[in-house]
Here is the input.
Amino acid sequence: MGFWQEFVAGGLGGMAGIITGYPLDTLRMLRQYKRLSTPTSALAILRRVVATDGPLALYRGMSAPLASVTFQNAVAFQNYAVLSRVFDSKVAASDPPSFKGVALGGIGTGAIQSLMLTPVELLKIRLQLSTTNHRGPASLARTIFRTEGFRGLYRGLTVTVLRDAPAHGVYFWTYEYAREKLHPGCRKSGQESFHTMLVAGGLAGVASWICCYPLDVIKTRIQADPQPRYRGIVDCFRRSVEEEGFGVMWRGLGTAVARAFVVNGAIFTAYETALRFF
Here is the structure.
């Protein structure tokens, strides 16, 4: 499979995932960030946002990830394809990589991906949580660069790497394992059903979010505030737990898991389907 086919397929998969899951991602972000004396359900937040700002507010900030998603997903899937082979060089070229190679390739992919995701997610988070009207991600990026410097755009890089490296390992391993269990032999033949793609992709997304969720909460809080409130990852964890209890590290998990199943089912279905057309 050539580079441009992987590029287009990865981009289509990423776009499908963002469009289907963005409203749930906005609700997850609001639940993670808001410091609440009384826990508020995702449904209550949904009603308030729609009543106050209208339904389009659920898509606020989507242009930042959508504009870059083609390139990011192309690089992610391409890196994964290469690294899973690098870590498993004994497997024949005609055979799929072992599950060990899949996991290690995913970890490497996640670490590399963090370099691209950090500024995009920072812009997305600021726009999603904003109560004022921004002209868009480019305008916000210029403001951050002017007021916080280049380092401001990469605030949260360390916690993003700590989140994404293991999460991507779990993500790709779960997908490959689940698709093989649901449709034995499909890893080599590439002929799994749409049902297999949807379910395996959905399970991969759920597993990767569960394993990294507390780090995602910390990342959201570190990246959200224009004026740094925390001195680092440990300080953010300690103060959040002291102020709101340990449960704050799992706040919004239900919304994230629901979104993950829908989004990643769409991503892998669109990706695999596009590859078949090529």
Observations:
- The chain is about 75% helix and 0% strand.
- Residues 69 and 87 are 26 Å apart (CA to CA).
- The chain has a mean pLDDT of 86.
- The longest helix spans residues 3-33.
